[in-house]
Fold:
Amino acid sequence: MFSLAAYLGASVPTGFTPALGATVATLAVFAPGFLLLIAVLPAWSRLTARPGPLRALAGINAAVVGLLAAALYDPVIVGSVDAPRDLAILAVAAGLQWKLPRPTLWVVACCVALSLLL
Structure:
């Protein structure tokens, strides 16, 4: 969304430089969200101080994690794990990322190396 706003801000003839138009258009995309955040933050702080809404938020967070896992499973796991070696590479990548926190690029390089070796 922000890249489209930057493109349109730069390409629409406004009389300003394209860089200024892109900057203004990009800020205009993000401004409503930031203003809403500033307006809601005091009420959000009071709401999360109570135990009931805090437990509800924990349940909502768990539901979101489940939805993200389902969204990951269908296109990524179903579409890319074709053989047991693919599953082994996936398990190694998950283990590296969870047990030995490493940079993502390092984990990807290890997966590529494993795929070339297996």
Notes: The helical segments are 2-11, 18-48, 51-80, 84-99, 104-117. Residues 1-49 form one domain. Residues 17 and 90 are 48 Å apart (CA to CA).
